[in-house]
Design a protein that fits this description.
By secondary structure, this protein is of the alpha+beta class. It has 2 helices and 5 strands, in the order H-E-E-E-H-E-E. The N and C termini lie far apart (about 45 Å).
Length: about 120
Amino acid sequence: MMTLPTDRGQTAEREAERFLEHQGVRVIGRNFRRRFGEIDLIGRQGDVLVFVEVRKRSHWQFADGAESIDRRKQQRLLRTAEAYLQQQRWNGPVRFDVIVLDARDRVEWLQDAIQAGW
């Protein structure tokens, strides 16, 4: 049976969520969408709100998942995060992380991978 990209993405997000929970990040939101973008996971680690982009590499020869987050994607993530922060009236510390799962579901956690510059 062939797996669709959305199925792989959802599976990767569930794996990332389990990983984060084991690392002490409490996931409080999933797939927060606005017309200009989506944030895969939103969590709390202590007093820090953590926005997480999940990337899945389907083959070891493909570019690193974190490298696939170009400036345009970063801007969409930041804009979506800003909408979330306004909606929740959050004014505490914020971090943007990337979780990369390789073809064997090994996890690489890149903390503070995207700088907001707020």
